[in-house]
C-alpha cells in the first residue's frame, strides 16, 4: 500500500481519553484552527463555528453533560456547531427576511449541510492534531443534553451543536481498534443486497466478530469487548429516548426539519 506520514497518522488513529497535564502552545492552536478553516464548505457558506471551552467550570459542565470525567481534563476542548446564525446576520444586513418560515438557510437541507461542514472541519483539525503527535477524542456524548449544551454555550437561533473534540498530549497508549474488512464497506457500482451478497457479508461479519472480540478497550481493560454483531444487536433493540431526538431541539433553534 502507498503510504506517507499523513496516511500513517490516519491509519494509527486512536481515541485518547487520558491527557498529560500540559497546555498546548499558541502556535499549535493556530495551526489546528487554520486547518479546520480549510476544510470543504458546502457552497462556500462557512456555516459552522467552534466554541473553545477554556473556563474550567464550563469544562466541568461539559464533562457532566457527557458523563465522561476526562472531558474536564482536556487541555484543548472544542464544541463544533452548525451555524446559520452568522449568515442570518449577513442576510438581514442585505435586507433579506430571516424569519423562521422564510429564511432559506433554516431548511432541512441546509441544516444537514451545515452539520456536514462542521464534521469536516472537526475531522481536519483532528487529523492535524494526530500528525503533530497529539491525541484526540470525538465527543458525541455532549449531545446527551442538547438543551443543556445550548444553554451553557449561549447558542443563538439558527445554531445547533454537532460534536465536541478534546485534544491533548496522550497519557495512554491504547491499541488501534479493529476495522472491518473493506469488502464490507466498499462496493462496486451498486449496493450488494441480494441473498448471495448477504450470505457473503454474514460470513465476513462472523470473522470480524472474532477479531473484535480479541480487542481490549482501556476503559474496561480486564475483558475483551463484545463481538461487533452483538454490539449492533444491542443498540438496534434500544428505542431512542426523548433526549436524543433531533427534531424538537432543531425546531427550538429555528430550523425547519
TrEMBL record:
<keyword id="KW-0285">Flavoprotein</keyword>
<comment type="similarity">
    <text>Belongs to the flavin oxidoreductase frp family.</text>
</comment>
<dbReference type="InterPro" id="IPR016446">
    <property type="entry name" value="Flavin_OxRdtase_Frp"/>
</dbReference>
<feature type="domain" description="Nitroreductase">
    <location>
        <begin position="11"/>
        <end position="169"/>
    </location>
</feature>
<dbReference type="InterPro" id="IPR000415">
    <property type="entry name" value="Nitroreductase-like"/>
</dbReference>
<protein>
    <submittedName>
        <fullName>NADPH-dependent oxidoreductase</fullName>
    </submittedName>
</protein>
<dbReference type="GO" id="GO:0016491">
    <property type="term" value="F:oxidoreductase activity"/>
</dbReference>
<dbReference type="InterPro" id="IPR029479">
    <property type="entry name" value="Nitroreductase"/>
</dbReference>
<keyword id="KW-0521">NADP</keyword>
<dbReference type="Pfam" id="PF00881">
    <property type="entry name" value="Nitroreductase"/>
</dbReference>
<keyword id="KW-0560">Oxidoreductase</keyword>
<keyword id="KW-0288">FMN</keyword>
Amino acid at each position: 500500500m502507498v503510504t506517507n506520514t499523513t496516511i500513517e497518522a490516519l491509519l494509527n488513529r486512536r481515541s485518547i481519553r487520558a491527557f498529560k497535564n500540559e497546555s498546548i502552545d499558541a502556535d499549535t492552536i493556530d495551526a489546528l484552527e487554520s486547518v479546520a478553516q480549510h476544510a470543504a464548505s458546502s457552497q462556500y457558506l462557512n456555516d459552522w463555528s467552534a466554541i473553545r471551552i477554556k473556563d474550567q467550570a464550563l469544562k466541568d459542565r461539559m464533562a457532566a453533560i457527557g458523563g465522561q470525567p476526562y472531558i474536564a481534563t482536556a487541555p484543548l476542548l472544542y464544541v463544533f456547531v452548525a451555524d446559520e446564525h452568522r449568515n442570518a446576520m449577513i442576510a438581514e444586513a442585505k435586507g433579506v427576511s430571516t424569519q423562521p418560515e422564510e429564511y432559506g438557510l433554516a431548511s432541512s437541507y441546509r441544516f444537514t449541510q451545515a452539520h456536514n461542514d462542521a464534521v469536516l472541519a472537526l475531522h481536519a483539525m483532528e487529523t492535524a492534531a494526530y500528525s503533530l503527535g497529539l491525541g484526540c477524542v470525538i465527543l458525541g456524548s455532549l449531545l446527551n443534553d442538547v438543551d443543556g449544551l445550548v444553554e451553557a454555550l449561549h447558542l443563538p437561533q439558527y445554531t445547533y451543536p454537532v460534536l465536541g473534540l478534546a485534544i491533548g498530549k496522550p497519557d495512554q497508549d491504547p491499541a488501534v481498534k479493529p476495522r472491518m474488512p473493506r469488502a464490507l464497506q466498499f462496493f462496486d457500482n451498486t449496493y450488494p443486497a441480494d441473498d448471495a451478497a448477504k450470505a457473503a457479508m454474514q460470513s465476513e461479519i462472523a470473522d470480524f466478530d472474532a477479531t473484535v472480540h480479541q480487542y481490549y478497550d482501556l476503559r474496561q481493560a480486564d475483558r475483551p469487548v463484545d463481538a461487533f454483531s452483538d454490539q449492533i444487536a444491542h443498540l438496534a433493540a434500544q428505542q431512542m429516548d426523548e433526549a436524543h431526538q433531533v427534531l424538537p431541539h432543531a425546531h427550538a433553534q429555528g430550523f425547519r426539519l
